[in-house]
Amino acid sequence: xxxxxxxxxxxxxxxxxxxxxxxxxxxxxxxxxxxxxxxxxxxxxxxxxxxxxxxxxxxxxxxxxxxxxxxxxxxxxxxxxxxxxxxxxxxxxxxxxxxxxxxxxxxxxxxxxxxxxxxxxxxxxxxxxxxxxxxxxxxxxxxxxxxxxxxxxxxxxxxxxxxxxxxxxxxxxxxxxxxxxxxxxxxxxxxxxxxxxxxxxxxxxxxxxxxxxxxxxxxxxxxxxxxxxxxxxxxxxxxxxxxxxxxxxxxxxxxxxxxxxxxxxxxxxxxxxxxxxxxxxxxxxxxxxxxxxxxxxxxxxxxxxxxxxxxxxxxxxxxxxxxxxxxxxxxxxxxxxxxxxxxxxxxxxxxxx
Length: 353
What we know:
This protein is of the alpha/beta class. It has helices at residues 14-21, 40-47, 67-72, 90-99, 117-122, 146-154, 168-176, 198-206, 217-230, 271-289; strands at 2-7, 26-29, 32-36, 53-59, 78-83, 105-106, 125-131, 136-143, 188-191, 209-214, 235-238, 252-257, 293-307, 312-314, 327-336, 344-352. Strands 2-3-1-4-8-7-5-6 form an eight-stranded mixed beta sheet. It is elongated. The protein starts with a strand and ends with a strand.
């Protein structure tokens, strides 16, 4: 069976997340990917855990795009049709409505992914997508839980906007683009700079055995409070990330983290003084983490890219240090940043040899 997946327009990690978790997906149109699965249930399980996923639609058997054929596919009192390439003629809506019996109404979509998931989860709607160049028709079978993502983004009891909080969908994608093998339930996840727990929440929801630490007690309290509010549990403890090997008695499968990156409002003229300290911190933690990772264990870590008026500082250059020869570099140079952000984030993935 064939399906199309609609992905987030503003999730800059979509390509990497799909490459890691859904490599068979092929780009059909911008933010629309096609793939095959044995059945609808399997297809939903393949995409519902992705941070970039918005909506899934199944390809129907018909290739007839006539009014009569499309009308025969509608089995609810509300319907919507979106053209994957181009717009829909208003006359098509009215002709389909006239051909149906009963009190039927249509809702026009304004987004490339059709109607908002909020509408779909409140009302019974037949939502169709037309791929006119290929004479295919798709019908929505799943959409992401808008309220779940909003609750994690805006309604957690402990948030600190000044710390540059990571959006939950980006946090989920960051974990998913880590090329771990096996089921999350069989793997131990660690975030050694947990902050308020954005990555920790997503790791718990994915099913990992989760550990997290921070050097600041207030951050530990905030992470624990946010997990409690969502009904999750994890092993959260106070620790210096450069000396975790002295605290842990078990080996870790993967570390995903956004470490301390300096003050959010750092003045350009202070950057050159801050960068050496950040590099020293990053070198220290990576040296120590070689002791706690399993062979083949993975690290996905964000490094800040900072710029002043005269130069750009790429803090990830420390991964070339001889003290870190115990790692293979899987990915480097992957930049993530919000629009207009002064601070750019480089994602690096390392594998213990």
